[in-house]
Each structure stands twice: as C-alpha cells, then as structure tokens.
Design a protein that fits this description.
single chain; 476 residues; mainly alpha; Amino acid/polyamine transporter I; 19 helices; 0% strand; globular
C-alpha cells in the first residue's frame, strides 16, 4: 500500500442517516428533471409512455440501489464500488471502474452539470463570446475549446469554487448540500401545486398523444428500441444514486445507514420525478414539448411555468435550475473525490491524491486533480456525447455491482449482512438482465458513443500496469 510522508489528517465519520439521504437526493436531482421531458416526448410521442419511462427507469434504478445496498452493507468504506469490486473481482477490475469514473463517468457528470448551470445563467444574462473566427478554431479537428467561451469559463469557475468549498471541510460541503436540496424540493413542490391548481391544464393533455404517434404492440421490437432510447434520457435524470458509497468512510454506522439512504433517497426521487413530469404534461400538450425539443433553445420547465406565471415564473424556474445544478455539481464533486483518494491510497492513482488535509480532513489533492480534469472536459465541449457514454459505462458497472450480490453470497455465505436485498434472487437478476439489454441496445443503436466509452475505460490499462510495476519496484 502506498503511504505518504506528509503530515495529514483523517476522514471523520460525521454524516448521519438524514445527511446521507440528502446527499443521495442532491446527487441525483440536477438538470434532468427540468429538461428531459422534451427529448422523451419527441422520441415517444405519447404522454402516457413518457410517464411510463420515468416510472420504469425509476424502478430499475431502485432495483439497482437495493442490490447495491446489500453489497454496501457488507463492504462499506470510503471509495464505494471501487472497494466492492476489489473484494469481488480483484484489483484490475476495481481499478478500471475507478479510472472510468475519473476519465468519463463522474468527471463528465461534473462538467456537464456545471455547463447546464452556466447555460441557465446565460439565458438570464448573456455571457461574452469570442468572434466566430476564434470560436471555430479547433484542436485535432475535434475539439473547439473557444466556442461558447463565456459559458465554458463560468462552468470552470463553478467547478473551482465548489472544489474550494469542499476543500475547506466536509461540514461546509454537507451544509451547502442540505440547504440547496431543501430549497430545490420546496420550489418544485410550489411549481407542482401551482401547475395543478392555476396552471390551466387538463387531463386531456395526459390522454392525448401527438398526431404523429404510431400505436405499437408491447411485443413490437421497434417499441422496445424506442423505450430504451427514451430511457437513456431518463437514466441521466436518475444518474448519481450510487455515489453515496464513496462516503463510506465518513458516514456513521455505514453498514446500516448507506442501504437506508439509498432506499429512501431513490424512492423520494422517483416520487418527485413522477409528480413533476405529470404536472408538465398536464399543463401543456405533448406536441408543445416536441416543439421545445426541436427548438433546442428552450428548457421544458421554463416553458411550463411561463405558461401560467408569465415572465416572472420563467425567471423563477431559471433561478431554480441554477440552484439545482449548483447543488448537484457540489455533491458530485464532494463524493467522487473520495474514490480517487482510496485508489491513490492503494497505489493505483496519482500519488498526491493519497493525502488528507491536516486541518480540514478532506482529500484535498484528490479534489484538485478532479477539478482540473473536469475543467478540461468542459473545454472539450462534447457534452451530449459524454452524457451518452457515461450512461453506457455506468450500467456496465451497475450490473457488475449487482452480480456481486450473487458472488458474495457464494464466497462469503456466513458473513453477517446488516441488510439483504428485498426479493432476492429475482430483484438483482432482473436488474442484471436489464443492464445487459441496455448495453447491447446501446452498442447496436449508438455504436460510436459505446465504442468511445469502451475506449476510455481501456485507456486506464497502461496506467494500471505502470502503477502496479512501480509499486512492486518500491516495495520491500
């Protein structure tokens, strides 16, 4: 194991069940709840199918969370799935998971959510841009770092600012997450109540598909493909639920509280998403959301609230999106940095990441390394592609965690389990089957995104062999 000669602190178990549950909710609720109803409506053409996809994606996420909870209750520690995979599958697979989080999954989440924050502010106050000639300059004919530069710089400023917040201490970051999450949920409740009472909507909007809607049998393969494509958008809305496992070294009684936080947090988000999207589709017909998607410059939630509260309402939702994406960026940065610290502590990441600040008791260098790479992803500008890739990569490892339920029951049958997954073996088996179908469907329907995602995962192999060899050469 790698050690450091610097004087450093230690991770402190200070988070209770309530704070852990809030972290689960705040790591999930970001931009998806405000934007994804539009692309899903364009794909499905039916309000009923849109709500069905939100529910199905939520149930699938809950199955994954329940399965993840059993593994977490057995192996809870800082680092989350990295720790689980090391026990279940060995060092190499654990490293590939951690590297994937750094290369694309978590860093891309931070970059993308911060970018949405900056876009939302740009809709209120136009940010500066370079001239078209400068904006179109590219690197390798792929990246355009100077395009939309005002939005990108603001996103980077947000990432750096929240890194500083979390650098200064867990309590500071935890308190910020609690305040932001409470504010977002309160505002969402207000929008739902107003939309259902004074929004001027109708149940006819829920019951009426688009004129271009084509009815299909549930056994029709084309319907299955459409549902899975739409659920990619929904899964982006649910992404992040497993991140609380990274905080295993800072949660009180983690073997009990992590499973409970996962269960309560995901159930709460499912309820919020269903009620909010029902309100959207109650207020406006599905054709309006299809037009919103085609316009590419309108956020669905803003259009809904503007319908019954005018410009003032649109301003309110824009500010709410700023708050939500601010909070989600903060929570994602807070949690993921613990993973890289754990990897470095075992000699499988950049050496300086294995350091706990002696005053603030935070993985300070891990936070800084994460901020640097997330900022580079912001400049890359390929956010939609990154989103598709991170969902694809995430479900590879979600499925692997759930398979670990079966592996651990075989390898460690007599070890006490504070929590056992409900409905075993059906629930975890169904989730694994779903992961396989989603991965195969993405390989067929989105080969470019899937291929790049796999490539980014495999780029970790040279680093793994270098760090492994280096550790052997320095060991005694």
């Amino acid at each position: 194991m790698q050690t450091t000669t610097k004087t450093q602190g230690h991770l402190v178990r200070s988070l209770g069940l309530f704070s852990a549950t809030v972290l689960v909710i705040s790591s999930i609720i970001g931009s998806g709840i405000f934007k994804k109803v539009a692309p899903m409506s364009a794909e499905l053409q039916s309000p009923g199918l849109v709500l069905f996809c939100w529910l199905l994606a939520g149930i699938v996420s809950l199955f994954g969370a329940l399965s993840n909870a059993e593994v977490a209750s057995l192996l809870a520690d800082a680092g989350g799935e990295y720790v689980y995979f090391r026990t279940i599958y060995g060092r190499l697979f654990a490293f590939l998971y951690g590297w994937s989080c750094f290369a694309v999954i978590r860093s891309a989440s931070i970059a993308s959510i911060a970018y949405v924050f900056a876009q939302s502010l740009n809709s209120l106050w136009t940010l500066p841009t370079f001239s078209p000639e400068v904006s179109q300059l590219s690197l390798f004919g792929i990246f355009q770092p100077f395009d939309n530069i005002g939005v990108k710089l603001l996103a980077i400023i947000l990432i750096c600012s929240l890194t500083w917040v979390n650098y200064r201490g867990l309590r500071f970051g935890e308190g910020l997450s609690n305040i932001v999450t409470g504010t977002v949920v309160a505002c969402i409740v207000l929008i739902v109540i107003a939309g259902l009472t004074v929004g001027g909507g109708s149940f006819a909007n829920i019951q009426t598909p688009a004129p271009t809607y084509v009815s299909r049998s549930w056994t029709d393969p084309s319907l299955i493909n459409i549902l899975f494509t739409a659920m990619l958008a929904a899964f982006w809305g649910y992404e992040g639920w497993s991140s609380v496992g990274y905080m295993g070294g800072e949660i009180k009684n983690p073997n009990r509280n992590i499973p409970l936080a996962l269960t309560f947090g995901v159930l709460g988000v499912i309820l919020i998403y269903l009620v909010v999207n029902f309100t959207y589709l109650y207020v406006l017909p599905v054709t309006d959301f299809i037009q919103i998607h085609e316009s590419k410059n309108t956020i669905a939630a803003v259009a809904v609230v503007k319908h019954f509260w005018g410009t003032t309402g649109a301003l309110l939702v824009s500010v709410l999106i700023l708050i939500a994406t601010f909070g989600c960026t903060n929570t994602t940065a807070l949690m993921a940095s613990r993973l890289y610290y754990k990897m470095a502590n075992q000699g499988l990441f950049f050496r300086k990441a294995d350091y706990i600040h002696p005053v603030y008791n935070t993985p300070s260098y891990s936070l800084l390394i994460q901020a640097f790479w997330a900022s580079m992803l912001v400049l890359s500008g390929s956010f939609d592609q990154l989103t598709d890739m991170l969902i694809f990569a995430s479900f590879i490892f979600y499925g692997a965690t759930t398979l670990g339920v079966f592996v651990l029951r075989y390898k460690m049958p007599d070890t006490p389990r504070p929590y056992k997954v409900i409905g075993y073996p059906v629930i975890p088996a169904l989730f694994i089957l779903f992961c396989i179908v989603l991965i195969v469907n993405t390989l067929i329907e989105r080969p470019r995104e899937a291929g790049i995602g796999l490539f980014l995962i495999l780029t970790g192999l040279p680093f793994y062999f270098y760090w492994t060899r280096n550790n052997k050469s320095t060991s005694v």
